[in-house]
Amino acid sequence: MIAVPIWLVPAVPLALLVAFCVPVLRPGVRSLVPIAPLAGLLAALADPVPAPARIDWLMLGTEFAMTDLGRPFVAFTAALWSLAGWQALRLLRDDPARDRFFACMLMAMAGNLGLLVAQDIASFYAFFAAMSLSSWGLVLHGMGAAQRFAGRVYIGFAIAGEVVLFAGLSLASFATGDTRLAATAGPEVPALATALMAAGLLVKLGAVPLHLWLPLAHAAAPAPASAVLSGAMLKAGLFGLMTILPLGTEAEPGAAATLAAIALAGLILAPCLGLLHGDPKAVLAYSSVGQMSLMALGLAAALAAPAAWPAIAPALVLLAAHHAFAKAALFLGVPTIWATARGPARSAVLVLLALPALALAGMPATSGATAKAALKTGLDGAADGWLVWLEPALFAASLGTALLMIRALILLAGAAPKPDVAADVSLPWLAMSGLVVAGPWLVPDPPVTDAAAGLSDLAPIVVAVALAVGVAVVLRGARLSVATMPPGEVLSLVARRPEPEPVLALSAPVRRGHALVVRRSRPLTPRPERGALAILFVAAALAFAMAVTGPETTHEPETPMSDTL
Amino acid sequence: MIAFDIVLTLGLLACAAMALTLRDRTASIAAFVVAGLLIALSWVRLAAPDVALAEAAIGAGVTGALFLRSARRIGPITGGPVGGMSASIAAALGAGGLSAALFWAFAGTSGPVPYPPLVAANLEASGVTNPVTAVLLNFRAWDTLLEIAVLAVALALVVMLGPAPVVPRALGELVLPFARIVVPLAILVAGHLLWQGATAPGGAFQAGAVLAGGMLALVLAGIGPAGERIVRGALLLGLAGLAVFVGAALAAEGLTGRFLGYPAGAEKAWIIAIEASLTLSIAATLCLLFTGPVRRPHQ
Amino acid sequence: MTEASLIVSLPLLAAVVTAASARVARPVGLIATAANAALAILLARRVLAEGAQVTHLGGWEAPLGIAFETDGLAAVMILMAAIVGVAVAVQASDDRTPRSATDPGAFWPLWLATLGAMNALFLSADLFNLYVTFEILGLAAVGLTALTGTRRALRAAFDYLSAGLAGSLLLLLGVALAYAAAGQVDLSVVPALTESAQGRISLALIFAGLAVKAALFPLHFWMPAAHSSAAPVASALLSALVVKAAIYVALRLSLDGGIGAEPLRVAMAAAGAGAMLWGSWHALRADRLKLLVAHSTVAQVGLISLALGVAPGAADSTLWHAAVLLMLSHAFAKAAMFLAVGRIAEELGHDRISGLNREELRPGAAEFAFAVAAVSLIGLPPTAGFVGKWVLIEGLIDRDAWIWVALVFAGTVLSAAYLSRVVSRCLRGGPHVAPGARRPQWRAGDVAALGLAVSALLLGLGSALPFALLEITVT
Amino acid sequence: MTTDLVYHVAGAGLTGLALWRLATCRDALRRIMALNVLAIGIAMVLLASGFDAATGRTDPVPQAFALTGIVVLVSVTAALLALAERIGGRSND
Amino acid sequence: MSDLLPLAILLTSLGVAPVILALPDHWSRLRTALNLGAATIKVALVAWLSMAVASGADFGVGIAIAPGLSLELQADALSVLFLALSSVLWLLTTIYAVGYLEGGTDRSRFFGFFSLCVASTVGIAMAGNLFTFLVFFELLTLATWPLVVHRGSAEAHRAGRIYLIYTLGGGLALTLGTIWLYALAGDVPFTPRGVLGDLPETHRASVTAIFVLLIAGVGVKAALVPLHGWLPVSMVAPAPVSALLHAVAVVKSGAYGIMRIVYDVYGVDTVQALGLALPLAALAALTILWGSIRALRQDDLKKRLAYSTVSQVSYITLGVALISPLAAIGGLAHLIHQGIMKITLFLAAGNFAEARGVKTVSAMDGMGRLMPGTTLAFTIGALGMIGIPPLAGFVSKWYLGAGGLDVGQPAVIALLAGSSLLNAAYFLPILQRAWFRPPPEDVVPKRGIGWMLVAPPAVTAALVVAAGLLANAPFSPLGWTRFIVSLEYL
C-alpha cells in the first residue's frame, strides 16, 4: 500500500476549502468533495501505519499519529464522509446556496478527520471546534425558521461544550505540564479537569441531559448532513471520551455510576420520546441518542471494572462502526424515498431500508448482532454490583431501537415523494447499504460469539413487532391518531417569541378522528409535550436515584417506580 | 526760620487741596500753579536750588500751560462725586493711614548717608564742580539719558496722537510787546543757566525750560511762523537730543572703553556739549508737547 | 563696544531715526530688531562662556554709579524679548494689514523704545534706574495700546497710563524710603532693607508698584481692556513682554533676598491663585477672542507669581527657575496667540468666538498657530509650559505644599477649558462646508504666529539652554 | 532736625491728599493733577530725607532723582493730557 | 547610525506630519505618496530594529531637557513588540484611509494628524523613561482629538469633548503621579524589574498612591471600567480612525503603559509586595465582563465592537496583573493578537458602512452574499475574538488560563470561559445574520469600494490566521513575547 503522510488526512479537505474560495476553481473542487476523505481512508487502511509527524511551528507544536484506537474510527468516518458528500452533490445540485454548504462540509470533514489523528491538545481542540462550528453551517443551510431555531439551540450547546472542554483541557495540561493529548488521561490530572472534559465531550456525544440539540439539528439539516452528523460526529465525542477518560488504569466508581446513570436514562428515554415524533429523521435521531447511550454504558462499565477494558474497547469500536454505517444508510435512504414515487419502487427501497434497521436492532447474522455480542462478552467479565443490571438494559435498548425502526419505516412509507429530488440520489445510499450488509465480514477480527446468543438476540425484535401490531390494531379500532410533538421537547416551552409554526421538512400524515389525547371542547391548545415531559422527569429521577445510591447499596428495596417499567 | 517753613507747608497743603477739590477748572489750575511755586520755594529751603529752578520752570510753568490748554479743550467737569460718602470716607481713612505710616517711616530713619562723601571725593574727577550736575551728567549719566528717552517717547506718543494744534487767537495788543521783551531775555537767561550749570545751580533742564517758555511766548503771540517745515524741524531737534546723548555715550565707550565714561581731562567739555544739545532738544520738545504737531493731512 | 552697552543704546537710536521719518521707519525698524536679536544671542553666548559680568557705567563703582549686571537671568529675558520682538516685527512689517488710523509708521518708534527700555531694565542693577526704565516702558506701551486710534483703545490707553504712572510713583516712593532707610539705592542694598521696619515698608511699596505694573490679580483692572482693544501686534507685545518686566523685577528682588519677608510671599502666592481663578473664569465667559486671550494673560501671570510666591527666596534654586521658564513659554505662546488672533480677525472681519467658523472659509495657518500656542499655554508636553509646571510641581511636592499643587492643576484644567472653546470651534464645518470653501493664503502674520508657536513647542525640548543660563544668575 | 521734619509732614500730607483724591474722582484732568501732586509729595519726602540739618546741605543724589522725577512727570502729564483730549474731545462719557 | 535608529523611526512619521499638514487639499497624489512612503520606510526600519534587538543590540538616544529631566528613546524587546504592531497596521490603515476618504474635505489635516498620532504611538513605544512616556502620551491625546472631531458635525464635537475630558483628566493624573515619583526617586528610566530601589519600604503610602495615579492616568486610555466612557462615544470618528486609533494605537498605548509601569517602573515583585496586583487583576476582570455584557445590547455595529475592545484590552491588563510568566506571555501576545483581530473587524465594519450604508447589526442580513470577501474577514476576526483555536485569540487565552492557574487562581479559567461565551453571544448572531439570512430585496450598492478598502481587512485577517497557526514559529508574536518575558521574569 502506498505510504500516505499522516498530516495529509486533515490537509486535503483544508486545501480544497482554500481552493474553494477562488470562484473560478469552485466547480472543479465541488466534484472533488467526495474524494477528499479518501486520503484518510487510505491512511487508515495502509498496512504499515503512517509514521507520526511532528510540526513544531504549527500552533503550539502539533503532532499527528494514527493510533490503533483512531485507525478504525478514521476508516469508517472517511467512508461515511465520502458517501455523504457524494449524495450531497446530487441532492443540492440546483440549490443556490450549495457553495456555502460545501464550504461548511469541507471544514467539518477536516475537523472530524483532524481530531481523530491529532495527538496534542491544541490541535485536537482546534479541529474539534472547527468541526462543531462548521456543522452549525450545515444545520442552518435551509435558512428556514426551523433551521434558525435548531441552529440557535445547536450553537448554544456547541459553544458551551467547547468552552467547558477548553477549561478542562487547560486545567489538565497545566497539571501534567505537557501538551500531549495522551497525558490528559494521566493519573495526576485533577478530577475536576476530567469531569469538565467529559462534560464537553458528552455534549457532542448527545448524552441525555445534553441531547436536546440532536433531534432538532438532525431534523433541520439536509439528509446527507444529518447522516454525517449522527454517523461521524457523534462518534468523535466517543473517541474523545475514550482518549481522556483514565480507562483501564484504576477503578473510578463515582464517575462510572454517574456515566451509567446518564446512559441508562438515555437508553430508556430515547425510544419513548422518539415514538412521539412525526418526522422520520427525528425518530432516527432519537435512535442515535439511544445507541450512543449504549456506548456510554460500555464506557461506564469499563470505568467500573478497568480489567474488562481490553475486552470492551474493540466491542465499542465495532458498535460505533456498525451504528455509523447503519444510521448513515437510513439517513441517506430518506432522500431516496423522496425520489421514488409510491408503488413497487418505494416498497423495494423500504425493503432495502429494513436491512440496516434490523442490523441496528441487533438481528442475528448482521453486524449489529456481532457488535452487541462483543459488548455482552466484554461486559460479562465485569459482573459485579450494578453491572448485573446490564443484561436487562441491553434488552431494553434493542427493544426500543426496534420500535423506533418500525415507527420510522412506517413514516417513511407514507412520505410524499418530492419531484425536484434527482433520481441518482440513491447511488450513494445503495453503496452504504452494501457496506452495512458486508459489515460482519469487513471486521478484521470478529469476536467469537456462541449460537445461543443468536436466539436471545431475536427476542427483542419479535416482541417489538408484536407490540407494534397490537398498537396499530388498537389505534385503528379507536380511530385515534398520534398527535406529533414539536421538536425540542423542553426547549420549545422556553421559545421567547412566538416562533412561526415550524415548517417541517416532512408534513405529518393527516387523518381524521381523535388524537391520542382527546381534545377538550375548550380551545385549549393541545399539550402532548406535557405528557412526554412527565416521562422525562420520572426517568431522570430514577437514574439520579440509581447514581446516588451507588453499587454497594443496590440490594435495598428499589423505589416502586422501577417496577412499573 | 522754622516758622517760615511751617507757614510755607501750610500754604502749600492748602493750595494743593484747593487745586484738587475746586470744581472750576481754571481756578484749580491757578491753585496748582501757585502750589508749584510754593514747592519751588520749599526746595530752596531744603537747599536744593537746581531742583527749585526746574520745579519753577517745568513744574509750575510748562505743566500749568499744558493743563490750561487741555482744560479749554475738555470743558467743564461733569458728573458728581464718585461712589458716595462711604467710599470717600474709606479712601480718606486709607490715605490718612498711609501718609501717617510714611511720615513715621521717613521721620524715623537715621541710616548711613554714603552718597555725599562719595560725591565729594569724586567731584573733581567728574569735570564739573556743581555736585548735582556731576551726578546728573557723569556719575548717573545713564539715568539722565533714559530720562531724555522718556521725553522723546512722550514726544513721539503725542505726535502720534496728533491733538488739534493750538490756534493762537489775538490775545490783545499787550502780547506782542511782551513777547518782544521776553524772548531775547529768555534766550539770554537760558544761555547763562546752561553755562553756569557746571559750577552752580543750573543746567540743561532749567535752561531748556526757560528757552521753551520763550518759544511758547513767540507761538502764543502768533509771531513765529507755524509752517509745517518749522514744526518738523522742531520735532527733529526734539529727537536729536537723545541721539546726541547716546552717540556721545557710545563714542565715550569707543575712546575710553567705558560706556558713558568721558575721556579723562575732557569731561567738562563733553558735559557742556551734551548739555547744550539737551537744552535745545528739551526746549523744542516742551514747546511741541504744548503746541502739538501740525494736523496730519488725513486727519 | 560690549554687547551690553550696544544692546541698550541701539534700539534707542533706531527709535529716534524711525520717529524722525515715517518713510524709512519699516526697514530701519526691521534691521534694528534683527540686530538686537543678534546682539542678544551674542550676549547669551558671552554669559555662557564667561559667566556673569558687571559693567559699571562711566567707570563709577556701585553705590555712586549705576552697574549693568549681565547674568544668566538677564540674558534669558533679553533673548525672550528679542525673539518675540523679531516675530512681532515680521507681522508688523506686513504693511497690507490696516495700520493705525493715525500714523502708519508710528508702531516702529514705540516698539523700539519698548525694546530699548526692556533691555535696560533687564540689565540694570539700580532701583531708581528701574523706575526710569519702567517709565519709558509705560509710555511706549501706552503708545502701542493707542496705536489703533479707536475710542475704546484710547480710553484703555488712558486708564493704562494713569494706572502705570500710579504704579511707578508707588515704586518711586518705595525707592525713596529705601534711600531714607539704607542710604543707597542699588540692588545690593535689598538684603539690608529686610532688617529694618522702614526697609520692609519700602519693599512692600515697591512690590505694590510692581503688582500694578504686572497686572497682578487685585490690581489688574486696567489690563484686559488695554490688551484686548490694542492692535494685534501691540497686544502681543503688551501681554508677552511688558507685563513680564514687572514680574522680572519682583523676581530679581526676591533673588536678592527682598522677598524673604513672609507676608510678601504669601500675598504674591495668594494673589497669583486669585488671578488664575478670576482670569480663567472671565476667559470662560468672554465672547470675543482678544478679551479671552487678555484674561488668559491675567491667569497666566497669576500662575507665574504663584510660582514666585511659593519659592522661599534664592536658596531653593529650582522653583524660581520654573517661574522663569513659565514666563518664557507664556511670552512665546501668548505673542503667537495674539498674532494668530490678529490674523483670524483680519480674515473673518470680526473676532467673535461664536462666529469663528464660517462655511466659505476653512481654518488656515493662523488657527493652527492658535491651537499650538494653546497647547503651550495649557502646559501640555512637550512644550516649555509643561517643563515649567513640571519643575514647579516637583518643587512643591518636595515641600508637601499640596494646596498649591492642586491650584496649579486647577489652573491647567481651567485654561484647557477656555482654550478648547476656541480651538474646537475652528474645527467645525463637516458636511455643510461650502464646496468653494477657500483656505486663507499665507501671509507674513501667519509665518510669525506659527514660528513663535512652534518655538514655544520646541523650547520645551530645548529648555536645557535656559536652565544652563539660569544657573549663572548672581544671587 | 525740625526743618526736614516739617517737610516730611508736608510730603506725607501731599501724598495722602493725592491718593485720597485719586480714589474719589473720575474726571480725567483732576486725576492727572492728583498724580502730579503725588509726584511732588514723593519728591519732597525724598529731598527731606536727603537734607542734612547739621550742614544745611542736601545730598546731591536725591536732588538728581528729584530733577529726573520732575522731567519724567512733565512728559507723562503731557502724554496723559493728549490722551484725555483725544477722548474728551470726542464725547463726554 | 545604529544608535540613531530609534530617532529615525520616530522622525519618519513626526517629520512627515507638518509637511502633509501644509499641503493643500487637492494635492492628493503627493500626499498619498508621502504617506505610503513614510509608512513603508517605517516598517522596514522596524524590521531592521527587531532583527538587531533579537541579536542582543540595544539602542538609546536622548537629550537633556532640564536638570534631572531627559527625553530618552530606547528600543528594547517590549518596545519592538508594540512598534511592530503599530507600524504594520499603520501602513495598512493608511492605504485604507486613502481609499476611504476619497473626495472628503480637510484630507491634508486628517493625514497630518494621522501621522502625528503614529509618531506619538512610536514615541510611546520607544520611550526610555517615564517622562518621555508621559510626553508622547499627552501628544497622542492632542493628535487624536482632531481626528475624532474630523467630521465636524455637532455630534462629532460632543464626542470630541467627552474624549478630551476623559483623556486630559487621565493625562493630569498621570502627570501628577509622574512628577510625584520624580520628586521621590529622581529620574525613572525603564529598566527590567523596576527601578524604585528601597522607596517602597520607606515611602510605602506615597508609592502606593503614585501607583494608583499612574494606573488611573494610563487606565483611561486602556479603557478600564470606570474610565472607558470615551471609547464607545468616539466611534463617531471615521472608520480608519476608529480602526487604527481606538482599536490599536490609543487603547494599546494605555495597555502598554500599564505594562511599562508594572514591569519597568515598579518591577513585578514590588507590585506584589505592595499588594496591588490583585486589585488590578480584579479591575481587569470586571472590565472584561462589563465590556462584553454592554456589547450584547448594542445594535450599532461599531459601538458593539467598541465595547468588545473595552473588554478585550483588559485581557492584557489581566495578563500583566497576574504576576506569572505564563500570564505575561498571554497578555503580551494578546497585545498583538487583539490588535490585528480588532482592526480587521473595524475595517470590515467600515467597508459595510461605506459600501452598503449598513451601520447596525440588524441591517447585516445577507451581507455574506453581497460582500463575501469583507464578511469572511469579519468572520475570521470575530471567531478569533471568541477564541476559536486555529486563530490568534485562542493562543493568548490559552496562556492567560495557564498563567491564572500558575498563580493559583482557577477563577481566571472560569472568567475566560465566561467571557468567551459572552463574545460568542454577541458575535455569532452577526455572523448568522450575515451568512445564513437572505439579503433584503431593496438593497442598492451605495458606493463601489476599490481594492484599497477591501485589501487591508483581508491582509489583517490573514495575519490573524497566521498568528494563530504559526504561533510556535520563532518570529511569531508568541515567540517574541516569550523572548520578552524571559527578560522580565528571570
Protein model, in words:
Chain D: This is Putative monovalent cation/H+ antiporter subunit C. The complex is a heteropentamer of chains A (565), B (299), C (475), D (93) and E (490). Chain A folds into two domains: 1-246, no CATH class; 248-478, no CATH class. Helices cover 67% and strands 2% of the residues of chain A. Chain A has helices at 8-21, 26-32, 38-45, 70-91, 98-117, 121-139, 145-176, 191-205, 213-220, 223-244, 253-275, 280-304, 309-339, 344-361, 367-380, 390-414, 426-437, 439-442, 451-478, 489-493, 528-549, 560-564, and strands at 53-55, 62-64, 480-481, 514-515. In chain A, strands 1-2 form a two-stranded antiparallel sheet. Chain A has a two-stranded parallel ribbon with strand order 3-4. The longest helix of chain A has 32 residues, at 145-176. By secondary structure, chain B is mainly α. Chain B is globular. In chain B, 76% of the residues lie in helices and 0% in strands. Chain B folds into two domains: 1-74; 129-299, no CATH class. In chain B, helix 2 (25-45) packs antiparallel against helix 3, helix 3 (49-74) runs parallel beside helix 9 (204-221) and helix 9 runs parallel beside helix 11. With 475 residues, chain C is an all-alpha fold. Chain C has one domain (3-430, 437-471). In chain C, helix 1 (3-20) packs antiparallel against helix 2 (25-50). The two termini of chain C are 26 Å apart. By secondary structure, chain E is mainly alpha-helical. Chain E has a domain at 332-490. Helices cover 74% and strands 3% of the residues of chain E. Chain E has helices at residues 5-14, 16-22, 28-54, 77-100, 107-126, 130-148, 154-185, 199-202, 204-221, 230-233, 239-266, 268-273, 277-296, 301-321, 325-356, 367-370, 372-386, 392-406, 411-436, 451-469, 477-489, and strands spanning 59-66, 69-75. Chain E has a two-stranded antiparallel sheet with strand order 1-2. The relative contact order of chain E is 0.10. Chains in contact: A-E, B-C, B-D, C-D, C-E. Chains B and D meet through helix 1, helix 2, helix 3, helix 4 and helix 5 of B and helix 1, helix 2, strand 1, strand 2 and helix 3 of D.
* Poorly predicted regions of chain E: none
Largest binding interface between chains: B-D, 93 and 74 residues
Distance between the termini of chain E: 31 Å
Mean pLDDT of chain D, to the nearest integer, reads 86
Q: What is the multimeric organization of the chains shown?
A: heteropentamer
What is the spatial order of strands in the main beta sheet of chain D?
1-2
Examine the coordinates and then state which fold CATH places here, giving the name of the CATH topology of chain D: Helix Hairpins
Structural shape of chain D: elongated
Find the count of extended strands of chain D (DSSP E, 2+ residues).
Answer: 2
Q: Summarize the biggest pleated sheet of chain E.
A: 2 strands, antiparallel
The number of helical elements of chain D comes to 3
Secondary-structure element series of chain E:
HHHEEHHHHHHHHHHHHHHHHHH
Low-confidence stretches of chain D: none
- How does the helix and strand content of chain E classify structurally? mainly alpha
Distance separating the two termini of chain D = 50 Å
Q: Mean of residue pLDDT of chain E?
A: 87
What about the largest sheet of chain D?
Answer: 2 strands, antiparallel
Q: Helix count of chain E?
A: 21
| Global geometry of chain E | globular
- How much of the residues of chain D is beta strand, in percent? under 5%
